[in-house]
Amino acid sequence: MSDSRTDAVQAHVEALCLERGPGALLPGERELALRCGVSRMTVRHALEHLMARRLVERRHGAGTFVRRPAPAQPLMATSFHEDMRRRGLSASSRLLWWDVIVADLELAGQLEMPGGERVLRVCRVRLADDEPMTLETLHAPCLRVPGLTGADLDGEVSYYDVLASRYGRHIASGKQSVAPVVLALREATLLGVPAGCPALRFVRTSRDEHGEVVERVESVARGDRYLIEVDIIPSARPRGAEQ
Fold it and tell me: CA nearest 126: which of 101, 155, 150?
């Protein structure tokens, strides 16, 4: 339950949020207490209310920040780079590791290729305005992207752009599933959030214009940074149904 002092602190911090903008660092509890003439406990309660309203966020060891709006993730065949660009964010990747493996029967079936073929596997952290958003593992059939390495996908490089420019392949369709998960310690550390935070797990298989599978991607996205958008199309009315 809030009181007038807590409400006053909330109003002050909300004004700072509007003034400084998304992602900005806010004053610490001690400074806010001095500014508003209240105790640090009152400030702490006010910040808890603002976190519950998803206006601010705390980062361990860094402070309290104005929360960035969650970018919407449409369920359509677009790249991470394209999704972020449409929202005015700068997309990039940080390469963690890559290797080439021999596909077992399960992976070969997912990629629709013969078993025993080589597969490029790339693990990257995907960033928006240099903030970690997703942890992604890409599997790409070497026979469809010959010569490609993980180093080719570091920095501000889009796999879809490489597919088009180097191999003349364009994403034409795909299938994607989404499920809620809880971040394990390693995943949380790479994404810069506490372990146990909610997240979304995406699994996507995409085909080019020839119908060949050119990627299978498993990614874990921060739950506080993604909003899923789905277009709703009404089903056709049965003939004779009332208007």
Answer: 155
